[in-house]
Design a protein that fits this description.
mainly alpha; 8 helices
Length: 171
């Protein structure tokens, strides 16, 4: 009773879903990006590369390079951390407990988890207060983060750290 169309039957709903809510909207956005805009911002059905020529701005190129650099570094760190942890969990006798500990942060909203890091890394945050109480730890801290109170937020290191924290469990 093997039906050769069974795979198609099972994949058809997913194919329709992805077509309706991903492929078609992506094509619409792509087509719109090649259209010209009039004085009032309305779309005119004329071919134009205006949206893409503005990408030659040096500021856009700098932002794109910075974004790619942060994403590559974050991905490498996530993979280097996730593989040994996954191997440890797979070989552990306490798999359920360890997986539970990995899943717990997902019970909290993503935005709340990110804002929690602001209270830790901010100028008046826990980490700054602790380091000021302990005294200046090292001159390297001063060169990377400036003088006390240290600026742990709004720099590449903080973005990479929080990105790794937020996406490590997905790896």
């Amino acid at each position: 009773m093997n039906n050769k169309y069974t795979g198609i039957k099972y994949s058809l709903p997913m194919t329709i879903w992805l077509s309706l809510f991903f492929v078609i909207p992506s094509l619409i956005v792509t087509v719109i990006s090649f259209m010209k805009k009039d004085v009032f911002g309305r779309l005119v059905p004329k071919f134009s590369l205006e949206a893409y020529t503005s990408l030659n701005n040096p500021n856009f190129i700098k932002v794109i390079i910075n974004t790619v650099e942060i994403s590559i570094v974050s991905t490498i760190i996530i993979v280097l951390l996730a593989i040994p942890v996954a191997l440890f969990i797979a070989r552990s006798k306490n798999k359920s407990l360890l997986l539970f500990l990995v899943i717990i942060p997902f019970w909290t909203n993503f935005l709340i988890r990110v804002y929690a890091w602001i209270s830790i890394l901010g100028k008046n945050g826990f980490l700054n207060k602790m380091l000021i109480e302990l005294g200046n730890i090292s001159p390297i801290f001063k060169t990377i983060f400036g003088g006390a109170p240290y600026n742990f937020m709004y720099n590449k290191y903080a973005i990479i750290f929080i990105t790794v924290y937020c996406y490590l469990a997905y790896a």
